[in-house]
């Protein structure tokens, strides 16, 4: 079960990295000189990436918990 813990921790770190990347993208989008429609479309794409990052991170944390519970 140790392998499950390490894989889960790696997935959780990838998810956190993606979340940091989303924050960076959102800050850049807010500061960019563009019209409201383009900014809204860009932020909506960032929200999709953000949700995927949260899902990856949650799956990783579930794997860590399952590895600890089974180990």
What fraction strand?
under 5%
How many extended strands?
0
Q: How does the helix and strand content classify structurally?
A: mainly alpha
The total count of helices amounts to 2
The description of the largest β-sheet is: none
What can you see in these coordinates?
By secondary structure, the protein is mainly α. It has one domain (2-70). The chain is 92% helix and 0% strand. Helix 1 (2-31) runs antiparallel to helix 2. The longest helix has 35 residues, at 36-70. It is rod-shaped. It starts with a helix and ends with a helix. The mean pLDDT is 94.
Name the descriptors:
71 residues; rod-shaped; 2 helices; mainly alpha
In short:
With 71 residues, this protein is an all-alpha fold.
What are the SSEs and their pairings?
Layout: H1 2-31, H2 36-70
Helix pairs in contact: 1-2
């Amino acid at each position: 079960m140790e392998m499950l813990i390490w894989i889960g921790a790696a997935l959780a770190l990838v998810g956190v990295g993606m979340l940091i990347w989303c924050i960076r993208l959102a800050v850049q989008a807010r500061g960019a000189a563009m019209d409201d429609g383009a900014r809204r479309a860009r932020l909506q794409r960032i929200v999709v990436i953000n949700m995927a990052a949260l899902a990856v991170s949650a799956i990783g944390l579930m794997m860590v918990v399952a590895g600890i519970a089974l180990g």
